[in-house]
Design brief:
Shape of chain A: globular
CATH architecture of the largest domain in chain A: Up-down Bundle
Oligomer: homodimer
Radius of gyration of chain A: 20 Å
Number of helices of chain A: 14
Pfam family, one (chains A, B): ADH_Fe_C
CATH class of the largest domain in chain A: Mainly Alpha
Structural class of chain A: alpha/beta
Keywords (chains A, B): Oxidoreductase
CATH superfamily of the largest domain in chain A: Dehydroquinate synthase-like - alpha domain
InterPro entries (chains A, B): ADH_Fe/GldA, ADH_Fe_C, ADH_Fe_CS, BDH-like
Strand content of chain A: 5-15%
Distance between the termini of chain A: 37 Å
Protein name (chains A, B): Iron-containing alcohol dehydrogenase
Number of domains of chain A: 2
Order of helices and strands of chain A: EHEHHEHEHEEEEHHHHHHHHH
Organism (chains A, B): Cohnella yongneupensis
Helix content of chain A: 40-55%
Number of strands of chain A: 8
Largest interface: A-B, 39 and 39 residues
Largest sheet of chain A: 6 strands, parallel
Amino acid sequence: MNAFELYNPTKLVFGAGKVQQLGQLVKPYGTRILLVYGGGSIKRSGLYDEVMAQLQTIGATVHELSGIEPNPRLSTVNKGIAICREAKIEFVLAVGGGSVLDAAKAIAAGALYEGDVWDFTVQKAVIQAALPIGTVLTLAATGSEMNGNAVISDWDNKLKRGLGSKLVYPKFSILDPKLTFTVPQDQTVNGIVDIMSHVFEQYFTHTQDIPLQSRFAESVLLTVIDNGEKALANGSDYEARANLLLAGTYALNGTLPIGIVSDWATHGIEHEVSAIYDIAHGAGLAIIFPNWMKHVYKEGVERFVQFATRVWGIDPTGKTDDEIALAGIEATRAYFTRIGAPATLGELGIGGDQLDRMAEEAVRFGPIGSFKKLNKDDVKAILQSSL
Amino acid sequence: MNAFELYNPTKLVFGAGKVQQLGQLVKPYGTRILLVYGGGSIKRSGLYDEVMAQLQTIGATVHELSGIEPNPRLSTVNKGIAICREAKIEFVLAVGGGSVLDAAKAIAAGALYEGDVWDFTVQKAVIQAALPIGTVLTLAATGSEMNGNAVISDWDNKLKRGLGSKLVYPKFSILDPKLTFTVPQDQTVNGIVDIMSHVFEQYFTHTQDIPLQSRFAESVLLTVIDNGEKALANGSDYEARANLLLAGTYALNGTLPIGIVSDWATHGIEHEVSAIYDIAHGAGLAIIFPNWMKHVYKEGVERFVQFATRVWGIDPTGKTDDEIALAGIEATRAYFTRIGAPATLGELGIGGDQLDRMAEEAVRFGPIGSFKKLNKDDVKAILQSSL
């Protein structure tokens, strides 16, 4: 195990009806609120009205930024920053899924920075201050509700980049499983894949002697695999939705990577695909991850054997390590297919004409990943096998 | 799963040599420090000198309270409170095991309270303010390094009680596995039992649909069982000590009980024993816990079947649920015995003459526990079977 720091000050408020605590949770931070949300789903579900009623209980002045895209755009973030400055916003409240939360984080950091918020994504500047943020989550997927990370896209230049800081941890996040009952089937699928992919990035590591972290990661995977299918079978299954929501938070709240070297190459590759084609992040990950696994498993087959046996229950009897590892990778693909996720870029109408550009962009700062350091040729091979 | 709140702002700084960051970690809180520690072990190990050197780098004025007992006493806590008031202490630094940390928490809360600090343990008052606390942990056991709880004893009246508040979470805790290399064998044993017992209290529950919490708890147990034996075989095994230390923290940092009803009856019973006989907490738990299990398992045998099969690898083939459950309980006792923990109160020279008094005290506020609500007769029966 390596040395590490663990610090996560977000307060998670979890359970049915917890939006009723929103007013009291926001109150300490001020009354000039920027409400950030996506499309009309929170209006159709009645959540918008409930949030506004809560903010009225504390006499808040609410400014709104709606229309956050599934891959939130720099231009939209900049609109939010302009509102914050003009209206002297004191608190940013994100109501929605991971994209909305990510946009809110970028807005909160950008509002107190004189330069271009994009600077934070290209290491031109470090976040020194941010407006406080709170969230009401409506989708189990990104883990953004309990971490200090965000991903935004510069659509004009077809770039998708991340920013991160302890200063943009949400002060609180309200997680009501009932708010996820109405999530459409395809978004539930993408969320499941996203959560599992977050775990994969922190599970396939060469760091030795990490029994607790390994088992925690396997715990999240086993919970998602089982409850994901239950949530897809019955969207209003409270317990399945609750377990999926909690697993999504733990997949990326800093618990899993303590003391280990994470990978994150597959996310890097997927970002290049969705930057150009604007596909759902989860769909891209479902396509690419098993191909990444096949490309890298020989670098540490014992880790993939553990994955196959503990997570997928592969019987090792009479099999070589390579066979066990490959059976685990096949089980991953089979699960993704069973829940309705795509297996090839072709299914999404994406051909091979941009492979070089994507591979080039993915390694623009040098090789990516750590389980196997991927150069441009590796990335291209993985994308090629994903067509 | 039930509704819950999760909030833990302690910063964990984990790894070899991390005491070198102590000065910088304390600095934001002030320079008038109360250093709280136990016996001479931190002087013999050189840790005391290292801590003092770190505090000198920030020009701190250090007052000392040493001699914290294994079951920290109210009278000692009151000495610390007096120093805090007199010397206008700004920060309480605990260097030691769980008892030292618990004493520091009680001191930090008592210092800013006009009444008797004991009031917090008997619900006569609620903690409204506390001095900030930091810790350097030297023993894997209580989890006190990352929670807001403390247990202190009123030795004159033979009472042992807990206090708790979000205000006494340590601001930071430094966990260096190397600092635990020199922990004597019996204290390592007690720590292992203590950690496992914390998990048991949060594992045996009737709350349904808690797959993630269950697997997290099993992860901690499996890690402790394996690494506990390794640490006992070789006290300087860094990885074993590191895994044990991390497991101890996760056993009681608020991760395991989210959304479930915990039990804590066995801790309540053990507190009555160690309040009278001043035995090590871990020793008392090792004796009592398997007997509690036998007394209650029929209330929810399926939970004990899961425990037996997943944690102890009991083969269920051809066995009834009761047999599987009992095999898991026997495996627990066998493990405790294998690592050298006591199995009976008799081994510690404790007879049956105080059973009534202990049972009476344990249920003074009504029945205890939740897996099975224990009345005085239940507690007495469990103690009787522990003689």
